[in-house]
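Write out a sequence, fold above all:
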Amino acid sequence: MPRPPRSRFRTFTRRIAIAALGLFALAAGCATLRSGDWRTASHEPVGTAPDAKATREAVVQVYAARAFGWRGVFGVHTWVAAKPANADAYTVYEVIGWRLRYGGSAVVIHARAPDARWYGAEPELLADKRGAAAEALIGRIDAAARSYPWAGEYTVWPGPNSNTFTAWITRAVPELRVDLPPTAIGKDYSEKLFGAAPSGGGGQASIAGLLALTASGVEGLELNLLGLTFGLNPFDPAIKLPLVGRIGAERTLAP
């Protein structure tokens, strides 16, 4: 005898609830694994960036690393690093929300290792430009960072946050061709309904980062639902999923 429609609906909702509970349990477990004392967490470089003193050419790189604690289950922290030709150190551009507690700007422009671990999390290289091509971008990166409009604001979800800041720079400097990971929550935050994709190419329709549709030759096609991004990139083959991130071949980077 066929199961009544109401019974089918209850079975379906029960399965959804079980799946949701499993997801939250997984998130809680991952958060426990990523928790610890932030004061003793590692910030050691992982060796991805060329040594500044030994490398005379200009270098521009973009990185992402899982956020600290429970936030790392859902999202990443991103930043941009630049070294002009013949410079002995990198300048890193990033947003750090807790600085607002002391009345400062969330935008931080400082010298540090570009490939340093982010509170223990190993960074992933998203873009790598070298030589004259990199040198031509550094001034524009600096100008974009200093003109970031939400320097006095920080909201983990849906933004503006550190990923909103990186997307602000990559929109201003599309030559970087950065495909920010789907776990970069906040990259789709915008006060405009229509604009460029976070990579600076293609287009995006976004409602304050809560709902967004993105299409470009860098990101492919992405759908953002309440900060959870699903996507498919046929240009640099990969599937994009929330929590998990990018699934596919190693990124195509052209230093």
About this structure: The longest helix spans residues 5-34.
